[in-house]
Design a protein that fits this description.
Radius of gyration: 22 Å
Bound molecules: phenylalanine
Largest sheet: 2 strands, antiparallel
Helix content: over 70%
Oligomer: single chain
Strand content: under 5%
Number of strands: 4
Strand order of the largest sheet: 1-2
Length: 468
């Protein structure tokens, strides 16, 4: 492999941790984590999530990063280098970011649109009924903003691992953290009296978020919380889509993987928790408990603008900060998705970075146009096996997140846990003499618990398992 010598690497642990955290911290932390926490009994969900992060999440993340560093290959070729017959897993792992990239850019475009609306002082318009639907069903604007978002991501990737991914993450991630903390603190201080004369405060909303609500909790209810937390964690850590393998391949051989992995997990979990502190008290104060039922795009693009509008003058500023923060989160995640594909093209076909970037931009652009048209010219509705009514974006999301990602993760657990044995990863982690603190836990997780949990997750997300 003569190419190995010229492979780039992160300049140090900080660059790696911030880039990986940049991938992990994304729209899922902001719109999905708080919503699930509110739905699933607050504190109970938080505790389960934390336990899973330290066990299940830790095992998956460690495995992928170690595979990357050991093979010095991107996902498409890394699996085959571990075990030749398992190269097909690399193809699956690489397919995930190829599918995700187009629709992630479309959503990124929505964020750009809202950020600009608040930046130009037009936040009130964004709160009007029908604004979001009106925008996404338009013909020109969604395409333009999608392409703009894609162009920024492509520019960062084109600049490479150090001057692109690492240097942008080093600026954007600290800024993001600062904004999240600032908005969260603000959210705790607000209060509001509604038309019916009911006064609500941010602190009450905070209590709903963190205090476990165990009233009427059943065994079935407990499993729902467990599966919700697991599905969320899985998505949130950016595993099973080749990203952590690609980033792991840029980690220097003398870096302490255990320490970096802990830091990535802490960063991701802290931002998810703070996103809840930011959103739940604000939505509760201005919209009551019913307001907290919206999730996904509905929460971010419909409910929150209404919350900002209720805040009066300061609402426009908070909205602007909020969408800037979401934009940073989306950008660093999209960068990691694109890098997984670009690095795969470079390793497999010996393409230059520029050429690989151009190829991936063309694919993402074509897919992105389709996704946008899915809301107007190509509009249709189909029902997915899990019961959701879907357009093109939802179908792509379903294939990648619900089907392929659990499959890739199961395959990875079987390959490392049983075929090559956990020593493949353990040796890689320990090769610098660093202590693998949770080694036993890692082995048990990877061989037994994670595969079982993942199969349950897969069956649930494809709609076969409906009892829980
Ligand atoms: N991990 C990101 C989040 O929590 C999501 C993500 C999706 C990242 C796709 C990369 C690729 O939002």
């Amino acid at each position: 492999m003569k190419k190995e010598k010229s492979r780039h690497s992160f300049s140090g642990s900080l660059g790696f941790v911030l880039a990986a955290a940049g991938s992990a911290v994304g729209l899922g932390n902001i719109w999905r984590f708080p919503y699930l926490a509110a739905k699933d009994g607050g504190g109970l969900y938080l505790v389960i999530y934390l336990i899973l992060a330290l066990t299940f999440g830790f095992a998956l993340l460690t495995t992928e990063i170690a595979i990357g560093r050991k093979t010095k290959q991107s996902p498409l070729t890394a699996y085959g280098k571990i075990k030749e017959k398992w190269g097909f897993l690399g193809v699956l792992a690489c397919l995930v970011p190829v599918i995700i990239m187009p629709y992630y850019c479309v959503i990124g475009g929505w964020v750009v649109k809202y950020f600009l609306a608040y930046l130009t002082g037009d936040g009130a318009a964004a709160a009007a009924d029908g604004y979001f639907t009106g925008y996404i069903t338009g013909t020109v604007q969604p395409l333009v903003f999608m392409a703009a978002f894609l162009a920024v991501v492509a520019f960062i990737i084109f600049r490479g691992v150090n001057r692109g991914i690492e240097s942008f993450s080093k600026v954007l991630m600290p800024l993001l953290l600062l904004m999240v903390v600032g908005i969260a603190v603000f959210s705790l201080t607000i209060q509001f009296t509604d038309d019916a004369g009911v006064k609500r405060t941010g602190m009450e909303g905070f209590q709903i978020y963190v205090v476990p609500n165990l009233k009427g909790l059943t065994v079935k209810g407990f499993f729902t919380v467990l599966l919700d937390a697991m599905g969320q964690l899985f998505f949130s850590l950016s595993v099973a889509m080749g990203i952590m393998i690609a980033y792991g391949s840029y980690v220097q051989d003398d870096a302490n993987l255990v320490k970096s992995i802990n830091q990535i997990e802490i960063f991701d979990t802290a931002v998810a928790f703070l996103a809840g502190v930011m959103i739940i008290p604000a939505v509760y104060t201005f919209m009551g408990r019913e307001g907290m039922e919206a999730s996904g795009p509905g929460l971010m693009f419909v409910s929150l603008p209404k919350v900002f509008a209720s805040m009066g003058k300061v609402g426009n500023l908070i909205g602007c900060l909020f969408f800037a923060m979401v934009l940073f989160a989306a950008l660093t995640s999209a960068v990691s998705v694109m890098e997984a594909v670009v690095s795969s093209l470079m390793d497999k076909f010996q393409m230059s970075r520029t050429k690989a970037t151009v190829v991936e931009v063309a694919i993402a652009l074509a897919g992105g146009v389709l996704v946008c048209l899915g809301y107007n010219k190509l509009y249709f509705e189909i029902k997915l096996p899990n019961g959701a009514v879907a357009q093109i974006l939802d179908i792509m999301d379903y294939i990648s997140n619900n089907c392929l990602m659990p499959l890739v993760a199961i395959g990875t657990c079987v390959l490392i846990g049983w075929v090559t044995g956990p020593k493949t990863v353990i040796q890689e982690v320990e090769k610098t003499g660093c202590k693998f603190g949770r080694k036993r836990l890692y082995i048990v997780m990877l061989r037994y618990i994670a595969p079982v949990l993942l199969v349950v997750l897969l069956l649930k997300s494809i709609g076969i398992l409906t009892v829980i």
